[in-house]
Specification:
This is Phasin domain-containing protein. InterPro entries: Phasin, Phasin_subfam-1. Residues 7-109 form the Phasin domain. The structure is a single chain. By secondary structure, this protein is mainly α. It has one domain. It has 3 helices and no strands. It has helices at 5-60, 65-126, 133-186. Helix 1 (5-60) runs antiparallel to helix 2 and helix 2 (65-126) runs antiparallel to helix 3 (133-186). 1% of the residues are buried.
């Protein structure tokens, strides 16, 4: 199994360029998701400030303790819903980023595997008769690819399960919190 120095240099250059491209893609996706997060936070902050000012005016205008408690109770449910919605948006941003990064990594691993397979096949063609190293490397690469695909599939399933669980758990938690606030205010 012989490789000449030009093949090794070309492979090293190609791998280096792939790594630079992957880092650039990761950085781009991270910045896109950071932008989503900043936009979400700015929107939530603006809305919160406006709603707090309005609520303060309403509370200051209360004529008696009963009206005050009624105003406080009326604001609890929407605030809980907004907090749950905000959390849902965060989960969606995180899940989106994980999915995008996973796709980038999978594509990189696939390209690397194809290049490595090409090198192994080229080396096998140039190998002396009876040299089993190329077959060994090919077998090892196939096994590694199989293991990686199984790992990637499990990671995708876990992410999907987490996202689904977070979304389905949010509504009952919000309802329970609103119920608890309503009970506390009435008491």
């Amino acid at each position: 199994m012989f490789l000449n120095k030009d093949q090794i240099s070309e492979t090293a250059r190609s791998n280096f360029e792939s790594q630079i491209s992957l880092y650039a893609d990761f950085t781009s996706k991270a910045l896109e998701n950071l932008e989503k997060l900043v936009t979400l936070n700015l929107t939530a902050s603006r809305a919160s400030l406006e709603e707090a000012a309005s609520a303060t005016r309403q509370i200051l205008g209360a004529k008696d303790p009963q009206e005050l408690m009624s105003l406080v109770a009326a604001q609890a449910r929407p605030n809980i819903d907004k907090a749950v919605s905000y959390g849902g948006h965060l989960v969606n941003i995180a899940a989106s980023m994980q999915t995008e990064m996973g796709k980038l990594a999978e594509a990189q691993v696939s390209r690397f595997g194809q290049r490595f397979n090409g090198i192994v096949e080229e080396a096998a063609r140039n190998a002396p008769t009876g040299d089993n190293m190329a077959a060994f490397f090919k077998s090892a690469l196939d096994k590694a690819n199989s293991n990686y695909e199984q790992f990637a599939r499990g990671t995708r399933q876990a992410t999907e399960a987490f996202t689904g669980t977070a979304a389905s758990t949010a509504a009952p938690v919000a309802a329970q919190a609103a119920s608890t606030v309503s009970s506390t205010v009435k008491a």
